[in-house]
Structure formats: C-alpha cells, structure tokens
Amino acid sequence: MAQKVNAILFRRSLNSYEWDYKYVKSNKEEYSSILYKNLEIKKYFHKLFETRGFFILTLKLELFKSELIIHISFLKNFQESTKTNKKEELSKIINKSIITVLNDYYNKKINITIKLYDLNKSFEDNISKFKNNRFEYNKLLKKLRVIRNYPLYPHLIKLVLIIITNKKSSKLLAETLAYLITNQKRKHNNILMFFKKSFDVLINSKMSVIQGIRILISGRINGFPRAKSRLLKFGSLPLQSIESYVDYYESKAYTPNGTFGIKVWVCQK
Fold first, then answer.
1. Burial degree of 155 (CB within 10 A; 0-12, 13-18, 19+)
2. 220: helix, coil or strand?
3. What is the biggest distance separating any 2 CA atoms in the chain, rounded to whole angstroms?
4. Distance, CA of 200 to CA of 140 (rounded, Å)
5. 246 within 8 A of 267, measured Cβ to Cβ
6. Helix ranges, the chain (H)
7. Residue in 137, 150, 145 with CA at minimum distance from that of residue 208
8. CA–CA distance, 31 with 24 (Å, rounded to integer)
9. Along the chain (269 residues), what's the average pLDDT of each consecutive run of 10 residues?
C-alpha cells in the first residue's frame, strides 16, 4: 500500500470550518463556475502577497449571493521584515489591488469583506496574555540556546515556533527551507542541523499542536558531486491512516548546484 500524501477527500470527519471554501449555490450548474472563480482568486492572492514580501498560511473564501468574505492568515517574510512598513504595505494591497480587482471581477455586484490575521502578532499576543504560554516559551528558549549562534537565529526561532503552533504549516516550512537552501549555498547541513535540533525540542512541547513532521530533501546537498536524499522525522506521523490529518506540501530550490526537491508532511494532534 502506498503512503498517503494529502488524502483530504477521504477525511469525512473534518469539521466545516476546516475547509478552505464555503459558498451558497442556487443550482448545480453554478458549482463549476464558483469553483473556478475561487481557484483564480486564491492564485491571485498568493502571487500578490508574495511579491509584496508576505506569506499566506491559510486563505478561506466564503461566497454568498451578495457577499464575499475572505479570511487571510499571513506572515511577513523574515528576509523582508525590516525593509518596508507592514501597515502601509497591507493598506496598499487591500485598497489599491484587491478591492479594485475583485469589484471588476464581480462587476460590483457583491460586497467584499477582507479579514486579516497577522500570525506574528497573534503569536506575540498569546505569549504576553497567558502566563502558562509565557513560562513554556521561556523554557523552550533556554533549551534552544545550543543553536543561538546560527545566522538569522531570532527570526528563525520565532518562525519555527509559529510552525508548531499552527496546524496547516507544511507550506510555510517547505518554502522556508527552499529559501535557506537557495541562499546558504554549500552550508546545507547547517540548515538541516538547525531544524533537527529545534524540532527535537519543540515537537513534544505543550505549545505544539503538531504530532509529527517529516521532511524529505533531494539534491546535491553541500555541493556533493551526486544528488542524494536526506530524510528528517520528528514525532509520530502515520502516513497510511486515513483518519489522521496530514498536511502536505512540496517546493523547489534553485541553486548553482542544481535543483533541490523539498517535501514536507505535517500531522496535527
């Protein structure tokens, strides 16, 4: 039996709020049209946010007869974190790009509501508001002192903590690995060692909502003459159980030593 990648169609136990789309159709013929529009909107949002230095973790669309509600949870890319003002960039994206384009797309026939959720801000609020989370956070930072000399340590530690506190984080982890592999050149083992040491500590912490992580990287690691694969596994991750929720994403990193393939599986508790 082959391993499961992302068998969302077989998961009948998923609650309605866990799906990416919610819409009301008047007849069966509208189904294909609504699905196509949803996919086009989703593609446009991802491209728009990525070009402005933002990463979208989840994007949910709720389409009714006269209203479209869009929920976006996003994260400022750590390599762009100090270059631009976040509030100004978000206002430009929403007012000048999104609202204008969607009004033209729907011929101004529906009301558009956009709800933004900043993952950085929500993570900081959870740490500051709840005493237990603050205690656990400080405890984890002490355990992770062994990797504090790693480049970009403050940004990456926060990013890793955001990954383990969000269920659908496979894309965020895969894209982060792709960026680091592209820019670190022949120091790929250092990248893998950083994630290994951090996830070994974080996967079993009280803050974690993730049961297991599996990372498969294929390519000329550290500039080795021949391509090889490295597999990292943390926690428990059943890939053949239909009942378990596994979030899957694959990405590519283009380097002078060739293309790297990155596959990530994340299993929530």
1. middle
2. coil
3. 59
4. 11
5. yes
6. 30-51, 86-92, 99-105, 119-129, 131-143, 153-164, 170-184, 188-202
7. 137
8. 9
9. 51 54 65 81 88 86 84 78 69 85 84 88 85 86 83 84 88 89 79 89 88 91 84 83 79 88 89
Q: Residue holding tokens 């998923």?
A: 14
Query: Contact 56/98 with Cβ under 8 angstroms?
Result: no
Alpha-carbon distance of 134 to 149, in angstroms, equals: 23
32: tokens are: 């294909």
Could you give the CA distance from residue 209 to residue 260 in angstroms, rounded to a whole number?
28
Q: What is the torsion angle, in degrees rounded to the nearest 10, for the CA atoms of residue 31, residue 67, residue 11 and residue 40?
A: 60
CA distance 132 to 135: 5
Segment (H or E) for 76 = strand 67-76
pTM of the model: 0.81
Same-domain pairing of 157 and 249: yes
Domain containing 107 equals: 16-119
Q: Which residues of 90-126 are buried (b: 16+ CB within 10 A; e: fewer)?
A: beebbeebbeeebeeeeeeebebebeeebbbeebeee
* Dihedral class, residue 64 (left if φ above 0, else alpha if ψ from -120 to 50, else beta): beta
Identify whether 124 is part of a domain: no
Alpha-carbon radius of gyration of the chain: 20
- How confident is the model at residue 1, as a pLDDT? 41
CATH number at residue 241: 3.30.1140.32
pLDDT number for residue 166? 87
